[in-house]
Structures are given as structure tokens and as C-alpha cells.
Amino acid sequence: MRPTDHPATPSFCDLIAPLTPADISALWSNRKLTFRRAVEPIRAPALLDWNTLRNSIETGVIPLEKCRITFGRRDVPPPLYSDDGRPNAAKVTQLAEQGASLIIKPLDAYLPAVKLVCQDARRQGIRVGRAGAIVTTGIGGALGLHFDPKDIIVLQLEGSKRWRVYGRPAADPGKWNAKQSPPDETAVFDDVLRPGDFLFMPAGYWHQCDNGPGRSLHIGLFVNRPTATAPQAH
Predict the structure, then answer these.
(1) Strand locations in 20-123, DSSP E?
(2) By the 8 A CB rule, do 211 and 136 touch?
(3) Pairing state between β 101-104 and 128-136
(4) Sign of the torsion angle spanned by Cα atoms 40, 43, 49, 53
(5) CB 138 within 8 A of CB 100
(6) Per-residue pLDDT tens for 15-55?
(7) What domains does the chain contain, in order, with CATH numbers?
(8) pTM of the model
(9) CA distance 147 to 13
(10) DSSP conformational letter for 213
């Protein structure tokens, strides 16, 4: 179903095709790590592109406090993008052009097109709680090896990014301060996402990303878990 008030905005079904909401529900229930290549790569940038994201930051649509900036997987010191202690939006986006990464969430709170997709997913029975985006221009990635406390639907929108996902998921992804078992050394998934590609990653899977040539932009839809059952590697 396509949102009627924004006909140019891809629906949730558009973005996950050829999978269906029923397929996503099955993955969600079974805790199954799943990757699918795009059928129509051109559809992905219709949701969001770097120019729109940059403009939204520089015009104040997206508050700067919702932007985390990293370089070489480490946080960038605020003085590098501030004037007299106040963050400067133009400097933030300039850093992103020069090799830094931007991590932005919740994206759906500020961009109507992303909000509509999240709402459409919920109408289809997928419990999307929020959305975020990561822009990476330099070599490497935005973050080091980590896991997320919620399931994520990853949609690559621009550029490419190599994802390495490891087995032995965290036993309780919601407990960040608890001691968690380290991941296996061998990746259970190692592939490059390109525009329109889809990845469903259950909560607790350790992962790390490396940027391809040029700028990469992907969006993540964070899905509330159906149960407290620990995810299983597939």
C-alpha cells in the first residue's frame, strides 16, 4: 500500500520487495538473519538521499543534537564542528563530505517521508519503533564491532558498504551493561550492500561495517522484538 498523500514516497512494501510484510513477520518471529538483493535499485533514493539529509541538517529541520559524528570509528571532538561552543551545522556536513561519518536518529521524527514509511510498516503489522541513518564518506566505518538491542531492517540508499555479521549473538541484547559473550571469529554474513539492498538483522548480532568507494548512506528501521527469546544464528 502506497501512502496516498505523498505519492512520490516509496511505501514500506516498495522498499522490502520482493519480500512481503508476511515474509518480514516470519523473519521477525524466527529470528532469521536475511539478505536480499534489490529488484529495482532506483526506488531506494526516492526515500532519502544525501542532498536532502544535508539540507535538513543545515536548515535546522534535523537538530544537531541528534547527529553523532565519528571519524575512524571514534567520536569527533565538538570543537571541530562548533563556533564558540555552539555546534555549526555547515561544519557538521562539511566534515561528512571530508571523510567523517554521521549517525542520525530518530530520523522519522523530522523527515515526513521516513515517518510515512514507518507508519506504513506498522499498518502492515511490523512493529517499527523508530528509524536512523548513517552516512559514511571515508575509509572504514562509523562504529566499531557492536550489537544493537533491537532488530534492524537495513536499506542501502546510496553507495556501498561491506557488512560483516558474526555468530554467537548476545544472550540478552537489551542489557548493555551486562557482560556479553564475544562473537565467533568467523562471520556468518560477509557481503556488500548496494542501493536498494535489504538486510534483516535480529537484535544481538555483533557486526561491523566498512565503507565502499565514495559516500554510503543507509537507513535502519528499528523493530521491537516480539519476545524476550535470544536470537539464534542461521
Answers:
(1) 34-36, 67-71, 74-75, 82-83, 86-87, 101-104
(2) yes
(3) antiparallel
(4) negative
(5) yes
(6) 888 889 999 999 888 888 999 998 765 555 578 999 999 99
(7) 12-223 (2.60.120.650)
(8) 0.88
(9) 26
(10) S
